[in-house]
Amino acid sequence: MQGYEIVHSSQIDGEFEGFDDEVLFQLMDGTCWVQDEYKYWYYYSYCPQVHILRRNGSLYLQVDGQDEIVSIRQLDGVMKSRINGDFKGWEGETSYQLQNGQVWQQSQYKYQYKYAHRPEVLIYNSGGGNVMHVAGTSAKVRRVK
Length: 145
Hints:
Blueprint: E1 5-11, E2 15-16, E3 24-26, E4 32-35, E5 45-46, E6 49-55, E7 58-63, E8 69-75, E9 79-82, E10 86-87, E11 90-91, E12 95-97, E13 103-106, E14 111-112, E15 116-117, E16 120-125, E17 130-134, E18 137-143
Antiparallel strand pairs: 1-6, 2-5, 3-4, 4-8, 6-7, 7-8, 9-16, 10-15, 11-14, 12-13, 13-18, 16-17, 17-18
């Protein structure tokens, strides 16, 4: 893309389903990035090659071979664990115990069903509170234990 500099290249760790609202992108190099603007674009790929682009001091994510980009920011201090048991999505005040002993509860209403057994969990501070990302879904959460 003209006017953009590639500053980093890696692969998405797992499924990529495009851009939406505050999508978390975990890369195979261990870094985590979050979408920093609302933009919807659906595109499915498993472990696609991606580029981190820079223009005028801002960073963007681009899937290799695609023209769409989205503004992103890198996340520091992402906590990783697993749900201790089954994940059945979000029901409003859902709480989950993690393998590390912590318990996190949904802090903002959202209903979304998604089943996974002992899925990986990523928890990060979005600037407006903590967000739990699990099985391709996410919700705002607070730690209760």
